[in-house]
């Protein structure tokens, strides 16, 4: 197992390299560069850009150099912890992100945790009580969550939260707490705002998890070993959790790698609509204004999370299913 | 005849059944010959038919898909017909009785007044009865570019209005737009979903079944693809799409490419499931029979997690119907004059709408209905394919 | 970074300069008020803190509400033949940190910045040059400086009154610590390292940004000075204790103690403003939000008013006179075609459908609020007259039509115009949809396509775009003393003749000089204006240019004087309920002096 | 409650432990219903063994499951099952009337009633270790500490014949051979010392020596803990050795019931008589046919996708040319688990050890051996279902020789067509989501034999030959009984008419009458079409009936090989002798002699010439003539062995 893990970690290096190339291409692909879009944006409101400063930035960040050199500079910088410079914020990327990162992590983890906490019992319920009113009701509820586009859902929730509970519109906290250190009031304010994005981002994921869990469970419930377990006198719940549920987790584990990135990218639009202080809006903005080092670092960070996630998923899969662990390589 | 069982605790007698015995008699399984002859597909169909909700869903979807052919006829107005005098008209209710008299379906003529302080258009019903007409002459249209026509299923009274679901900011009938929007929404994403499913199952299947180097390479590719979030991809792809393409073509193109990129999640699920399943004896049996890889994957392994596939497919439907909304958000999606449910919803994405013109959110309803229908259909298919049912 | 200068300066007691500028509020029809209070404002991104110096509008010379230039930071100024400009500073005027504001601050900019090749590679900024010649700079005494040219520079004052003027002065006491001439190398190296920049010129630039006030330490003359270092989600601006204006009662302005700018996504700002989360909101809310905002007046203590936008046209079609397509170009060059297009548009329908009928149907021209307004400019070919339009087109030789009734071009193609837009405003597509219908009636089909802004610009400059949609004249309320350059090909921003504009902008190095007689004529008139020393002469030139511009219908304006909602707290006093809303020349709120706004009791 | 379940016999009034009264179970399915059990009554006395015998598919397993109330939800159940727990106080309870999966019934399941499922292969979850799954029952029903539980499990695993119980504890089910899994199953059922054990074919996958041990174990437990047993089996030999009362069922109805003496000595019902007559004997003549209950004529060429071999000289005697030649094949499995991070040295199991033999064209080679000795592994290697570590396998088919272990493309294709296999585990070798029609027809489809119509004909002919209804064609495998599934597997293997058919326990789940029917079918096909069989079985009588030659395997090696008469009548190797001694006879007068069977706890040391003395290379095959080889020390002279053997036989006579 250790050998396998070490080997898998080794394989991550070329993968990350490949990803970095792809990320770089993606950021470079749209025509023009940050400076051009910056000038245009200023012009759109009738302002003049500080052309001279822009010229200097251009030269400093090697925009006169060929693309491969710029790529090497970028990757090389990242290796020594220099994530480049955000043109938009005129600050090193590492200084720009600030609070956003942990708020993103907070939103993502609360969402993931809630998704699981809700999806598992409901999935099990739906599978064991197939076609009961509960099954139908929960299915309906979840699917509506999937069917309403996130941005509309966000607007509606936000609007009514404001109308009924007086929650300030959007954001992760009341804005008066923005630059303040953590306090109970601030924490409370975060809680008060957190549920909206979590519900919006979480519903679709929860519903699809419930549906897939249900489908997988239904397949497993018929297996002979379930009967064996029942014959041992186990509690039906115990039977379910220990055998079929574990068996049907396969799909779930194989997906771990993409959970975080998909939550984060699924949250982007919501975050923009709700104006959350997370990384999503910043990433989108950076992409649109071609603030390439900022966007690139974000993307690499996400990619890194994914790669780690896939690693975890692979290892978990092997740990979890002895057939894969012990027979996977058996020559036929 | 002696009783079969003695009293509790008593010794057992030698009991012999006296019923007639014919070793050649057929087994007691009573079944119709149609059943015996039926192929597996037919058996599934029979079983599917028993699932009421699935059947209804299937029929509903069939109707939906059929109706998009004759939208021109079904919609009371054309897609772009504007009624400048009825901007943001709320839904009109259809009445049958006027002052106690039966008139048949009709609406009251509306009176619009612009409130100059709030700049809000205030509509009120007048007492003028405007009976609806059926199979009537209305807006001209060119049916599929084949012939001109002007028949509609229902139209407003001559010179009147009929906005069952209200109108939007240019006074366009929301109902008609929803009907026209179905055309794009129900069809366009199928391409992407098909692509991603075929790729996901084939590539994931091969990787899971073969393992080894092939799996290693596929896994790394998946890893790379998964680690790029979709929004930057959309942006980058949209940037390189030829400008000369129409928005529809661009959207098609991007859906297709995303389909090409979207198979990864499914492929990983397929792969890991196959990792387990391929150790089953029946796979070995098939191998020993000489079955090809494709056959083993297609006939033995994939059916083994059909439930998962069906669930995933039905869950991908919302993505395909609403996928464009994300794009629109980034300014890349479909645009007028093309209309889809996503476009309609994107147009409604302001607080103004929610607060003042909530009827513009009506396109959510067909989306929900279609998604529910697909899911119930999926349930039915799953059950039909489930041998244990 | 605290320096000795700072420390010394900060001990100066706060208060206005001895020779403060007295604003007679009563005379303006406003009421004098009291200091205090916090105003929240929502911005769509960190970048938007640049609105503060625009709204603050502390300029050497600034406009009043009628666009008369008045000394503001200056105590007074003298102009001779538009050539020699003498500026007198106020006595006891101090930067926000308490350091004195003197001629030294002008000298620092002129000598240590403009003339420093490392800081300003190009030397003195182009705006300050007349026919390539830079002015002479003289310090007459501690509080008097003079700029003089050999030829008239009628633009100079207007430039200084603009929303973002060319900076002639900097807080030299503060800035010197970043200049190698005044700072020793070790210390400078330390500062460079501390601020994570590469060299001293970046450091100087970084610390001295005025357009976007990102450096809370940088002393300023504006009514509010920044207190937050980016990146942040909330920016705080506090009143400048040395601000130079006082009200008639001697109370120092600004009244409002603190501005809090909260970053929010642009789409959310209307909703937030409507729920009372902003005391003063002008940006990022749109006409379409008005009804919603107005309805929130009932629930929250806010007032929603409508101001008037001053662009020459809120939305205008721009045929690209420099497009690559020969056939189209030839058509566009024919004034009959442009006029036909303009006549074919039913402006009143558009006004009614999209602007509630309360904008003004007009050609792309100046507004009645301008002294240069004449009805014939606004009405030039702006009536709905499809017959004439059709006749004009037939005359042009576009009389062949296909089975759908679309005209055929000379090379047999169908007259099919793709209008490109930068896709920014939601009403754009609505207007275009209506326009498409209108033009269809004269046998021209229209398709619209939205692209990213850079791409949009690039395609226009490259001549790939046949027609685009943009807004009309930026400054729809000019005075004769403001440059009429928008009417002549002077910039590649002008989407209807980008190539000619580029030629002018680059001094002939790039693009082509206009070869269309009318465009040439406009350019000549502009040059004439430049040379003119008298206002009356300039006015005449303006009228000539306006007449040509509107008669030639280079741009097809649709409506102007569109309305802009502004939201303010109902406690906020002195905020005009009507006003003109524009960047240039009004600097948004700037000319209306937000420093005179104050919080009273809830109305 | 007494945790051991032990109760003094004298105190309790001896009520029936379990009474099933008028039980009926039916399964509805689309287009009909299957009545698995009809109006069925049965009782089990405390401490007694009731055997349930009957034809395959007659509802025995369904009955077993029903009385525990774990039959699948689709079943419709009528009647009642009264359980009178000797350790309980409240008298008889109707198990079927209790709430499903309720507390009450759960405290009985696994604790008071244990169940050994017929299909040990699929009855374990593949994700959990054997130990874990056994332990669970203990955890639920007892309050033992983890250490005590572990101890008890290890003890039980030892009792059911595992040489290394500690190792098995941590193994996964798929790492065990069929027989080992069955023993694990037995251990699991017994771990709580139930008052009633439902043993559904508990010994089918076991070789006779282990079977004998298990029988002994069950007998011991029965007397020690007063355990009653419902024994469902086909093996009348086992019945004769274990049962007190016998119930004979046929198609869900009781045909005959009575004490074991009555049943064996005085069978009345024609069905029972037929059953008795169908049992294969050791003293059958080579030409003698088994007498199944119903004889079904076989037309091989119609039935299989194969032409009648025209120039088949004398199908009766094996032709001399070699069809399959196996040389020095070895295979070992590595347990990669040792240590969480795989740092420990991997542990190797030598499943097949240097095996060489030939299979002649047209002959049928029997392969017998201890459970877990590598038979299945070997047969999978021959099929190239597993790769061998070393050695070679050459297949001399009609299209020329093929190197089995390295065949590619066309060669492999030929191989796949010419060699077929019947899997030991019928359940898992049938695709759960294919109908029987598709399953049997699949090889035909793969190899594109005939058109759709011909395929249908073949499939239908095969189905009736294996004694299944036509209606079975549209059903899915899970709805069949163990024996029915096994027959489906046989039909599938036969469909192509292979040259070589490897049968891994093909008839273990079949009652004697169906078994006779199938064996006859195989024999007929062999005669008619010249098929060749490798026949793996634990049932020596069956081997005796089917095989021309027999190979005996022990611990991965072939210890003895020779013509069937020689092996059966004068075996040389002590293991073979032991095997023969452990055969249970369906004769009340020939009870098993447990003394000769010995204990399974320790791998026995053979007598001097046969033991490897821990040096495996010191053993070699000694040729005893007439194709009789035996594995013995290299130093030993073959003649000595023979002489020894002859003298021993004389001594016995
Ligand atoms: N889940 C089910 N659905 C439908 N039919 C079933 C199901 N389980 C069993 N049967 C049918 O019930 C009958 C009895 O099956 P059962 O398994 O009890 O037979 P059995 O006596 O144990 O046979 P064998 O000796 O072959 O194991 C068979 O005809 C079988 O096809
Ligand atoms: N995948 C595997 N991993 C590890 N060990 C295995 C594996 N498969 C089989 N073995 C081991 O190989 C040995 C031989 O197994 P095999 O299945 O060939 O026995 P068998 O002779 O068929 O026994 P039975 O008669 O009980 O079916 C057993 O000890 C078993 O534990
Ligand atoms: Mg059975
Ligand atoms: Mg085996």
Automatic annotation (TrEMBL), chain A:
<feature type="transmembrane region" description="Helical">
    <location>
        <begin position="187"/>
        <end position="210"/>
    </location>
</feature>
<feature type="transmembrane region" description="Helical">
    <location>
        <begin position="294"/>
        <end position="320"/>
    </location>
</feature>
<protein>
    <submittedName>
        <fullName>ABC transporter permease subunit</fullName>
    </submittedName>
</protein>
<comment type="similarity">
    <text>Belongs to the binding-protein-dependent transport system permease family.</text>
</comment>
<feature type="transmembrane region" description="Helical">
    <location>
        <begin position="7"/>
        <end position="27"/>
    </location>
</feature>
<dbReference type="GO" id="GO:0055085">
    <property type="term" value="P:transmembrane transport"/>
</dbReference>
<dbReference type="GO" id="GO:0005886">
    <property type="term" value="C:plasma membrane"/>
</dbReference>
<feature type="transmembrane region" description="Helical">
    <location>
        <begin position="101"/>
        <end position="124"/>
    </location>
</feature>
<feature type="transmembrane region" description="Helical">
    <location>
        <begin position="136"/>
        <end position="161"/>
    </location>
</feature>
<dbReference type="InterPro" id="IPR035906">
    <property type="entry name" value="MetI-like_sf"/>
</dbReference>
<dbReference type="InterPro" id="IPR045621">
    <property type="entry name" value="BPD_transp_1_N"/>
</dbReference>
<feature type="transmembrane region" description="Helical">
    <location>
        <begin position="252"/>
        <end position="274"/>
    </location>
</feature>
<keyword id="KW-0812">Transmembrane</keyword>
<dbReference type="Pfam" id="PF19300">
    <property type="entry name" value="BPD_transp_1_N"/>
</dbReference>
<dbReference type="InterPro" id="IPR000515">
    <property type="entry name" value="MetI-like"/>
</dbReference>
Automatic annotation (TrEMBL), chain B:
<dbReference type="Pfam" id="PF00528">
    <property type="entry name" value="BPD_transp_1"/>
</dbReference>
<keyword id="KW-0812">Transmembrane</keyword>
<feature type="transmembrane region" description="Helical">
    <location>
        <begin position="301"/>
        <end position="321"/>
    </location>
</feature>
<feature type="transmembrane region" description="Helical">
    <location>
        <begin position="356"/>
        <end position="377"/>
    </location>
</feature>
<dbReference type="InterPro" id="IPR025966">
    <property type="entry name" value="OppC_N"/>
</dbReference>
<dbReference type="InterPro" id="IPR035906">
    <property type="entry name" value="MetI-like_sf"/>
</dbReference>
<dbReference type="InterPro" id="IPR000515">
    <property type="entry name" value="MetI-like"/>
</dbReference>
<keyword id="KW-0472">Membrane</keyword>
<feature type="transmembrane region" description="Helical">
    <location>
        <begin position="184"/>
        <end position="209"/>
    </location>
</feature>
<comment type="similarity">
    <text>Belongs to the binding-protein-dependent transport system permease family.</text>
</comment>
<feature type="domain" description="ABC transmembrane type-1">
    <location>
        <begin position="182"/>
        <end position="378"/>
    </location>
</feature>
<feature type="transmembrane region" description="Helical">
    <location>
        <begin position="53"/>
        <end position="75"/>
    </location>
</feature>
<protein>
    <submittedName>
        <fullName>ABC transporter permease subunit</fullName>
    </submittedName>
</protein>
<feature type="transmembrane region" description="Helical">
    <location>
        <begin position="249"/>
        <end position="270"/>
    </location>
</feature>
<dbReference type="GO" id="GO:0005886">
    <property type="term" value="C:plasma membrane"/>
</dbReference>
TrEMBL record, chain D:
<dbReference type="Pfam" id="PF08352">
    <property type="entry name" value="oligo_HPY"/>
</dbReference>
<dbReference type="InterPro" id="IPR017871">
    <property type="entry name" value="ABC_transporter-like_CS"/>
</dbReference>
<dbReference type="InterPro" id="IPR013563">
    <property type="entry name" value="Oligopep_ABC_C"/>
</dbReference>
<dbReference type="GO" id="GO:0055085">
    <property type="term" value="P:transmembrane transport"/>
</dbReference>
<dbReference type="InterPro" id="IPR027417">
    <property type="entry name" value="P-loop_NTPase"/>
</dbReference>
<dbReference type="InterPro" id="IPR003439">
    <property type="entry name" value="ABC_transporter-like_ATP-bd"/>
</dbReference>
<dbReference type="GO" id="GO:0015833">
    <property type="term" value="P:peptide transport"/>
</dbReference>
<feature type="domain" description="ABC transporter">
    <location>
        <begin position="18"/>
        <end position="276"/>
    </location>
</feature>
<dbReference type="Pfam" id="PF00005">
    <property type="entry name" value="ABC_tran"/>
</dbReference>
<dbReference type="GO" id="GO:0016887">
    <property type="term" value="F:ATP hydrolysis activity"/>
</dbReference>
<dbReference type="GO" id="GO:0005524">
    <property type="term" value="F:ATP binding"/>
</dbReference>
<keyword id="KW-0547">Nucleotide-binding</keyword>
<comment type="similarity">
    <text>Belongs to the ABC transporter superfamily.</text>
</comment>
<keyword id="KW-0067">ATP-binding</keyword>
<dbReference type="GO" id="GO:0005886">
    <property type="term" value="C:plasma membrane"/>
</dbReference>
